[in-house]
Amino acid sequence: VRKYHNVVTLAVGDGANDVSMIQVANVGVGIAGHEGVQAAMAADYAIAQFRFLHKLLLVQGHWSYARISEMILTFFFKNVFWVFPALWYQIYSSWSGNIFYDYSFLQLYNIIFTLAPTVVLGATDQDITAPYLKRLPQIYTIGIERKLYTKTRFWLYFLDAIWQSLVVFYAFY
Predict the structure, then answer these.
(1) Cα 74 versus chain centre, distance
(2) Helix or strand (DSSP H, E) at 47
(3) Residue 121: what pLDDT?
(4) Cα(84)–Cα(166) distance, integer angstroms
(5) Which residues pair with 33 in a beta bridge?
(6) pLDDT band at 123 (very low <50, low <70, confident <90, very high)
(7) How far apart, in whole angstroms, are the C-alpha atoms of residue 34 and residue 100?
């Protein structure tokens, strides 16, 4: 299926005979149970019972897609927002080679602007509640149709970062 169609595949297995199928799929789910834990050990995700697959796909899958989409867009935003004021400064200072940011900001940048937001968003962000996602499985099509991470949203974040870098540079310099 993966070879001839442009799709993401999911394999669910519960025994040693399912290990190769789980490893070939894009996403593998192993069910630890009566047949052993070989499938669970080879899988990307392990669950204890088949009934937990519903929550894994519809709830955790949606949240994961939403979080990753937002994280990638935010990373591009923060990097553009960080670099462009230095570019404006170099243009303004006739390419003098002076640094725009203090050394302490350069050192703490990745800790403050990369680690903290990722941990907070990754641990707390839930755009739609779990009961609602379970009740309406058609919401899952948001991920299938790739509606949260689009070229339009990417360019909006990019242009917003450039705009905000201009505001910050000219308002505070």
Answers:
(1) 9
(2) strand 45-47
(3) 79
(4) 8
(5) 36
(6) confident
(7) 62
Residue type, 122: G
**Cα separation, 71 vs 120, whole angstroms:** 11
Paired tokens of 28: 């593998």
Q: Could you give the percent of the chain with pLDDT greater than 90?
A: 47
CB atoms closer than 10 angstroms to residue 163: 12
- Say if CB 106 and CB 43 are below 8 A apart: no
What residue spans of the chain are helical by DSSP H?
19-24, 38-42, 53-55, 61-92, 103-110, 116-124, 130-135, 141-144, 151-172
Residue 19 structure tokens = 């290990």
Phi and psi at residue 29, in whole multiples of 5°? -120, 125
**β-strand pairing of 27-31 with 10-13:** parallel
CA–CA gap between residue 30 and residue 44 (Å, rounded): 8
Q: What is the pTM of this model?
A: 0.80
> How far apart (Å, rounded) are the C-alpha atoms in residues 149 and 156?
11
